[in-house]
Amino acid sequence: MAVNVYNTNVTTENLSRHEILAWVNDSLHANFTKIEDLSSGAAYCQFMEILFPGRVKLKKVKFTTRLEHEYIGNFKVLQEAFDRAGVEKVIPVERLIKGRFQDNFEFVQWFKKFFDANFDGHEYDPVGQREGQDLGPNPGGKGPSAKQAIAAPPKQSQISRVAKPAAPKPAAAAPTTMQAPRPVAAPAAAAAPPAHKAVTNNGRANSNNVKAGAGGDSQEIQKLTSQINELRTTIDGLEKERDFYFNKLREIEMVCQGDEFEGNPLQPKVLEILYATEDGFDAPVTEDGAAAVGDEEEY
To answer: Does the predicted model carry a pTM greater than 0.90?
Structure first.
């Protein structure tokens, strides 16, 4: 008979959703990605088969279903297994099959405690018992050895985090003399590296080495072409942003130079900011060799 477990305020601390998913996937060699995916009831049926072999008719369980009426059928199989094992828990089927996170999370938290209280640590082959059927929303996924997972269920998840590459920061606009920005030249296409030939003692090229070198060159070309396309996309975005801010600064300059702004005490300060330079960033020089000034009419 089963050891019954009840949810009370003094029960052990609950696991996080990531830890719960890691436990389910490792134990059943499954591919669940969300707590809501457990609403099919298939995982619980196999867990009960692990705890009480022969009490669950796995052939009746729909492991890959997406239909609500088949979810109900799975939970019916589970409830029958509960009755045979003397489990007093009443399954809230109507709430679980709706796929809401909170309902399914509360139930799987209880089931984890129930499993820990009844599991004796024996080995089990979950994939073989369900005749190779996938379990979870990602068919064909692979995980660690199911026998090892059942023998020692993990206490904490081993979810790895992949850092996302940071988006390129836009270049700060600094049109010091308010001259129109020059277009940025796109990077030239990388020249294909020369093919490598291995010459034999009699002067003939080794065809096998030539083919191997050509294959490596082709991969290198594809890699460089992809990098060039990414750089071009980045440059296009930076040019658009640069032109946007340049036009804003140009409009400010036109207002400062207009008659309606003449004599305004803010005019000198605004123009000083517009034409200010920084170390390493000098004002462009005109054709006659003089530095560009702010009251030029040609840009």
So the answer is: no
For 11, the token pair is 């029960």
Cβ-count burial 105-142 (b if 16+ within 10 Å, e if not): bbbbbbbbbbbeebbeeeebebeebbeeebbbbeeeee
With bands split at pLDDT 50, 70 and 90, how would you rate the model's confidence at 171?
very low
Query: Is the separation of the CB atoms in 283 and 275 below 8 Å?
Result: yes
What pLDDT band is residue 147 in, cutting at 50, 70 and 90? very low
| Span 83-132, pLDDT tens digits | 999 999 999 999 999 999 999 999 999 999 999 999 999 999 999 999 99
Convert 76-103 to b/e letters by CB count within 10 Å (16 or more is b).
Answer: ebbbbbbeebebebebebeebbebeeeb
Q: Which amino acid type is present at position 291?
A: A
| Pair 200, 185: CB distance under 8 Å | no
Between CA 190 and CA 186 the distance in angstroms is 12
Q: What CA–CA distance (Å, rounded) separates 256 from 260? A: 8
**Which tokens is 219 given?**
């991969």
The answer to whether 179 and 284 are in contact (CB under 8 A) is: yes
Tokens of 133: 């059927």
